Automatic annotation (TrEMBL):
Residues 98-302 form the PBP domain. Pfam families: PBP_like_2. Residues 337-348 have a biased composition (Pro residues). Residues 333-372 are annotated as: Disordered. PROSITE patterns: PROKAR_LIPOPROTEIN (PS51257). This is Unannotated protein. InterPro entries: PBP_domain (IPR024370).
Length: 372
């Protein structure tokens, strides 16, 4: 069923807000997870190719709940109401009124070398490799770190495979670990991910891509530890619990604060060792007449079930504390379902939108997402 609020009702509700105490963020998040906020009318969305699968899943689910949304997916680079991209990617075709992180992914170094796994690299050696200063897998810098591995006499092919977002995330992490001695890597204009299948190649990639394509990954021997660190989803989640939300105007980003103690994932007793190479997936809401509809879709992406789709494709969900904060930010201007008084049942609600309501009006879906 859907609780439909016409414009007059929305204005009346807004006038009564001052009579009630502010709703705690956790309550707002719980309501967002239970109820779907819809905005009717046109909505155009585009995404970078690596996020197309997620966009298709989210779009199909959203339109199932919001039947009056005229959602269309357009090619990345075209004018749209929402753009899904990596946090550092330039989107000159979208002048954003709001940009928020909606998901995470690990940044890794893939090392597809036949018969060789678990290659250990220090930040110093990794920097030399990515700068092209090491050209053979039998280089002493490599073999000294891996005395138990017999490397082939094979040229090392550095692949320009990392996105700008992934490269900048790795630069930030390694600069922090080395106290600023890391020389920044520059991302190429185009990613050549397919070339990472070449024996003897090495390159930056997302953890999701590496796992989905069964690529071997380098372990990192960081100055702060005497044991090498291996990339895994649990480590990215652990690093996510150290994140805080910061902003420059309406551009929000999650930043890692290493002084924050990481917390264990649900169902585990101990936090995994944090992996701080983290790329962020963002949603940019483009300025225009459909901003309210775009915010409703962004709010939908932040629901727990939508975040679960990130995990389903090998990525990581938004840290819970940041998700709750972002729900409050993106909900500004959108209607919020009312909470029945304690002990009282939720009222019966109409199932159809009144035909006289303009197509662009906002509505609340006042029941959980359909199960079929």
């Amino acid at each position: 069923m859907k609780l439909v609020k016409v414009v007059g009702s929305l204005l009346l509700a807004a006038g009564l807000v001052g009579c009630t105490p502010p709703m705690p963020p956790e309550v707002k998040a719980a309501l967002a997870d239970k109820y779907v906020t819809c905005v009717d009318g046109p909505l155009t969305i585009s995404s970078q190719p690596e996020f197309e699968e997620l966009l298709n899943i989210w779009s199909e689910s959203y339109t199932t709940n919001c039947a009056n949304s005229k959602l269309q997916i357009t090619e990345y680079g075209n004018t749209s109401d929402i753009v899904i991209s990596g946090a550092s990617e330039a989107t000159p075709f979208c002048s954003s009124s709001l940009k928020i992180p909606v998901g995470l992914d690990g940044v890794v170094v893939a090392t597809p070398l036949e018969g060789v796994e678990n290659i250990v690299l220090s930040p110093e050696v990794l920097n030399k490799v990515l700068l092209g200063e090491i050209s053979n897998w039998q280089d002493a810098d490599i073999t000294d770190l891996n005395p138990d591995i017999e490397f082939p006499d094979l040229p090392m092919q550095v692949i320009q495979s990392g996105s700008k977002t992934e490269v900048e995330a790795l630069n930030l992490w390694m600069a922090t670990e080395t106290g600023g001695t890391w020389q920044p890597i520059t991302a190429a204009a185009e990613q050549n991910l397919e070339e990472l299948a070449t024996d003897g190649s090495i390159g930056i990639a997302s953890l999701a891509y590496a796992q989905n394509n069964s690529l071997s990954l380098a372990e990192f021997l960081l100055p702060s530890s005497d044991q090498s660190l291996y990339a895994e989803s649990a480590g990215v989640d652990s690093g996510g619990t150290q994140m805080v939300l910061t902003n420059t105007g309406d551009d929000y980003v999650a930043e890692i604060d290493p002084t924050i103690e990481p917390t264990a994932s649900e169902g585990t007793d101990e936090a995994a060792i944090p992996w701080h190479g983290i790329a962020q997936t963002t949603v940019s809401i483009c300025k225009g007449q459909n901003e309210l509809a775009a915010k409703a879709f962004a709010k939908y992406i932040l629901r727990l079930d939508s975040q679960g789709e990130l995990v389903g494709v090998g990525r990581n969900a938004t840290p819970e504390n940041i998700r709750i904060e972002l729900l409050g930010i993106v909900s500004a201007g959108l209607p919020e379902p009312s909470v029945p008084p304690s002990g009282e049942p939720e009222p019966a609600l109409p199932t159809e939108m009144p035909t006289e309501e303009p197509a662009v009006d906002a509505t609340d879906a006042a029941t959980p997402e359909p199960t079929s």
